[in-house]
Amino acid sequence: MFNKIALAASAAVLFSGTAMAADAIVYNEPAPVAVANTFSWEGAYAGVNAGYGFGKMKEDGVSVKPRGFVGGVQAGYNWQFDQIVAGIEADFQGTSMKKSVTFYDETGAYEGDVKAKIQWFGTVRGRLGADIAERTMLYGTAGLAYGKVKIEGNDVDFGRDSASKTRAGWTAGAGIEHAFTDNVTLKTEYLYTDLGKVKFRDEADVSKVKTNFHTVRVGVNYKF
């Protein structure tokens, strides 16, 4: 009888120890802690940009295609509403966009030449975008454009002449921007700009030169 009681007690102690040991090695993974995206596009910023421009200046079937470097500065302000970002931006660009065309008659004799140049341009645009990834925004943009266009020409009958005009028009495009830090962002942007018909008057005639161009540029902004 006593042996049975002792055996039962030993079994109970052994079972209890085994259960405690099993409990001791159970490891519960901690619940993952969600890390909120604390970056916000909201606020003022300013920066610089550089890129390439190419376009067309056309009048009475004569087309000149200026192209070259563009570079300038920009500044703006963003407002953020959850994943949506709305803002306004202004920029001013200097350019080396120019092109010359020489004309010859049927016999190959020189008739004249035309040089077209987009000296500078600027824009004031709205921007509307959305976060597509951590610290990365895709946006569209459109607004007012203005610029100075210069035409130089030489004609065997009328001689050499030149004129420049400042003209307003419109622009639209899109871009992508990524924040590398809370203050420094990098963007790549495309714009189509149309300055409409720029009127030039010389001794021989009045010319209306339709002017439009494309720009692709990379910019760096500092967010205040």
From TrEMBL:
Residues 1-21 form the signal peptide. SUPFAM superfamilies: OMPA-like. It holds the Pfam family OMP_b-brl. The keyword ATP-binding does not apply. One of its GO terms (cellular component) is cell outer membrane. Belongs to the Omp25/RopB family. This is Outer membrane immunogenic protein.
